[in-house]
Amino acid sequence: MVSELNIKDASNPPLGDRGKKRMHPHKFTLWVAIGSIVMMFAGLTSAFIVKSNQSTWIPVAVPKIFWASTAAILLSSLTIQLALRSFKQRFMQQYRMLVGLTLILGIAFVLMQWLGFQQLWNDQGITFKGGGAGQFLYVIFGLHALHVAGGVIALVVMFVKAFIGRSKNYSSVPVEVAATYWHFVDLLWLYLLVFFMLIG
Amino acid sequence: MSAAMHVHPEVATTHEVHHDEHHVHHHNETFISKYIFSMDHKTIGKQFLITGIVWAIIGGLFSVLFRLQLGYPDQSFPILETFFGKWAKGGQIQPEFYYALVTIHGTVLVFFVLTAGLSGTFANLLIPLQIGARDMASPFLNMLSYWFFFLASVIMFSSLFITTGPASGGWTVYPPLSALGQASDGSKLGMDLWLISMALFIVSSLLGGLNYISTILNMRTKGMSMTRMPLTMWAMFFTAVLGVLSFPVLLSGAILLLFDRNLGTSFFLSDIVVNGEILPNEGGSAILFQHLFWFLGHPEVYIILLPAMGMVSEILSVNSRKPIFGYMAMLGSLFAICILAFLVWAHHMFVTGLNPFLGSIFVLLTLLIAVPSAIKVFNWLTTLWRGNIRFTVGTLFAIGFVSLFISGGLTGIFLGNSTIDIHLHDTMFVVAHFHIVMGVASMFGMFAGVYHWFPKMFGRYLNNTLGYIHFWVTLIGAYLIFWPMHYQGLAGMPRRYLDKSSWVSFSQFGDLDKMITVVSIIVFAVQLMFVFNFFYSIFKGRKVTTQNPWGANTLEWTTPIRPGHGNWDGEIPEVHRWPYDYAKDGRDFIPQTEPVGEHESKH
After folding, report:
1. Alpha-carbon distance B310 to B205, whole Å?
2. Is residue B286 part of a domain?
3. Within a 10 A sphere around the Cβ of B282, how many other Cβ atoms?
4. Per-residue pLDDT tens for B473-496?
5. CA distance A140 to chain B (A)
6. Which structural domain, as residue segments, surrounds residue A148?
7. pLDDT tens readout for residues B370-409
8. Most buried residue, A186, B9, B95, B351, by CB count within 10 Å?
9. What is the count of structural domains for chain A?
10. Which residues 121-160 in chain A show a CB within 8 A of chain B?
11. What is the CA B314 to chain-centroid distance, rounded?
12. Given this model, what pLDDT does residue B441 score?
């Protein structure tokens, strides 16, 4: 009886021998990783709150271009969700196009963040000198952009694989993992933006 | 996606007749894929262990060097100049060298030995074996975890050889000292290398921790419910949770510190004058760094301690041939410790001008940890109570752990009270407390684990006689070294001073310091003997001839003596019971794989 169960479950890549249907380990790992990343930004934003109570604090105004980057990342969340849907429905042509679109939007987001930093640095004159919210903005938004850039690299891999990849079993898990991560950096961005608008 | 391992149950079943050398793994393995860039959790565990041993020798040697300074501050040792040149001019340890030694000793022992070397080794080795999985959830991330650690090690090691020396602002690297290159030699390049090395180390622990958590929650074999897991697994699980949630906060502190050091920001710096030069930094807060640091730093001590607790529970139960006393209470205590670990960090900061009301809350939460700790101690003692104890070397180290945990834990109650802490803060009392309760106790847990699972790792036993010598000298030595430090600390002797001979109130302890130094040299020598035993026994030790040499119930002893990649030749065994059915219904032990009998009593 044991062997029957095992053989049935052996088709499941994670080698779990339990009968119940459970979350794929890679997806689960992603959720734990998200918890970990949240802790890092919680550390940074709470450091921000602690310091913002000091008398020498200089607030910062979020440049307008960050609204454009917000639009880009929101839109990319939509495209990657559609990409996941078309992957599940096996519309490969549509999937490739949507992943490509997400990729472009992701790169556009990172570039716009960079432009925003330049505006702050050159036009508003907020540099690393002195104290205040500006320094935090560079570090926090910069780290967030790094996380988006990491997602962009993953998207490049997926994009290339969509053209040349020949895998034996058709699994939507990698796409689901990428999509979840992408939604996460999107939400994280909204949190950071609201945070800086309210407290910065 | 790791495609490294495919299991073919239909093939494997035919192997039963001629197993042992026949591995489930059918890929062609080269030396490099088997021993270097291995994705086998067992090999990765051994890599962590051996790297940890190398670091322990370095960290231990450093402590011998600064103990020489503390015991014999006015004496000259020409041999030191031969080896260390300008760092030990005239055979005397120079102040910069002394501070570099203590800093790297702390960093290496806390992070590289007792985090990577302890949970890196045993989480990797034991998790798949004890929950019944072929490997980790992601063997590839697991391999990356080791190689990030290796890279962090290389960078930290290289920082020992640069002209200005390694980081020397203490393992806690408080700014402003650590943030300003002009403040000390160790705050120059050495500090940047320290931060980069630690950032890589954090990545390594996070990758490891992610894997441990998702493996334990997702990959347990059939029948292995959470409460049928050995306590080692619960301990590893909570350790990983602590690491995954606290290390990122240290990372954010380290990033801000890197900005302050190299890009002129003022996160932690304000109103500073160094060597007559007024710095432009404004509005920063050095205390902020301490908050970020200790938000990791305190969970970190439980990251070090919990794996030792888990292994000790398992080893004590196996070797007293009795079920662990109070399994659910043990589990609840681990959980309580895990939660409280996040709520007590400010007890490291009672003298920073912390609001006394806030301080009193942290006192309360800190003292609360005594409750789960005491529960665990009583459960270990009652597990031993009237047991049929086999005094293997592993058992002795496990009992030694309990002894040290009690002694060191009790002094924690002193330090956790903010009023007493004002007197004891930054004295040798603190040094004594954390070395016994966290340092030596966890080393004992680690030794217990090494002696107990060495047969599983290498298919051979460690030499017993050397093991008993190792245990007794280390236990007596540890108490001789750290016990007197309590008295020194109560008398107000500060830590971190490299020469106290000009103070009459401290120089009265001169002979005591000499004694401590001599004992630490002996204890260090005995550790080298253990290292010899370890490497000698890998190749020449007595061979293991039975699958289950300790008569244990857990799944790792159902694998072949030298398991291949994939652990079980045939199918993964199914689990029918908890792992602590010892001395039950007249039987010495009942493995977890045995179905519950019809007339069997409930445990």
Report:
1. 19
2. yes
3. 17
4. 999 999 999 999 999 999 999 999
5. 9
6. 30-198
7. 999 999 999 999 999 999 999 999 999 999 999 999 999 9
8. A186
9. 1
10. 128-132, 135-136, 139, 143
11. 17
12. 97
Overall average pLDDT of the B568-572 stretch:
92
Of A177, A176, A116, the closest CA to residue A144 belongs to: A116
Q: Is residue A2 part of a domain?
A: no
**Residues B100 and B563 sit within 8 Å (Cβ to Cβ):** no
Cβ B222–A5 below 8 Å, yes or no? Answer: yes
CB contact under 8 A, A43 and B263: no
Burial of residue A160 (number of CB atoms within 10 Å: 0-12, 13-18, 19+): exposed
3-state secondary structure of B543: strand
Cβ neighbours for B157, distance < 8 A, ≥ 6 positions apart: B58
Question: Of the candidates B1, B291, B571, which has its C-beta nearest A2's C-beta?
Answer: B571
Q: Nearest-CA residue of chain B relative to A127?
A: B265
Distance from A139 to chain B by nearest Cα, in Å? 8
**How far is the C-alpha of B132 from the C-alpha of B576, rounded, in Å?**
12
- In-domain check, residue A174: yes
Kindly report the CATH number assigned to the domain that includes residue B69: 1.20.210.10
Domain that holds residue B234: 35-317+328-589
Contacts of B508 by beta carbon, 8 Å cutoff, 6+ apart: none
Q: CATH number, domain at A97?
A: 1.20.120.80
Contact status, residue B431 vs residue B495, Cβ threshold 8 Å? yes
Q: Beta strands B277-278 and B273-274: pairing type?
A: antiparallel
What chain A residue is nearest to B244 in terms of C-alpha separation?
A: A36
**Taking a C-beta distance cutoff of 8 angstroms, is the pair B198, B152 a contact?**
yes
Distances (CA, A) of B426 to B55, B73, B348, B373, B535: 26, 20, 10, 25, 39
Q: Best residue in A3, A4, A8, A15 to probe B by mutation, most B CBs within 10 Å? A: A15
For B497, the token pair is: 């001073």
* Residue B255 confidence (pLDDT) above 90: yes
Residue B175: asked if its preceding bond is cis (omega within 30°), the reply is: no
**Residue B16 located in a structural domain:** no
CB contact under 8 A, B137 and A28: yes
Residue A5 belongs to a domain: no
pLDDT surpassing 50 at residue B11: no
In this prediction, residues B54-72 reach a mean pLDDT of 96
User: How close is the nearest chain A Cα to the Cα of B430, in Å?
Assistant: 27
Residue B1, pLDDT > 60, answer no
CA distances from A191 to A74, A111, B224 (A): 13, 20, 40
Mean pLDDT across chain B, nearest whole number? 92
> Hunting for tokens 């060097």 — which residue is that?
B65
Classified as helix, coil or strand, B205 is helix
Q: For chains A and B, what is the number of CB pairs under 8 angstroms?
A: 149
Q: Is residue B395 part of a domain?
A: yes
Residues from chain B that touch A23, judged by Cβ atoms under 8 A, are: 218
Sign of CA dihedral B230, B233, B234, B235: positive
Better-predicted residue by pLDDT, B549 or A10: B549
Please state, in angstroms and rounded to a whole number, the distance separating the CA atoms of residues B144 and B204: 7
Take residue B79 and report the two structure tokens written for it: 């041999």
Residue A141 domain-assigned?
A: yes
> Is B2 part of any domain?
no
Instruction: Work out how many domains chain B is built from and give that number.
Output: 1
Cβ-contact B553, B591 below 8 angstroms: yes
Q: Which residue of B has its CA nearest to A128?
A: B265
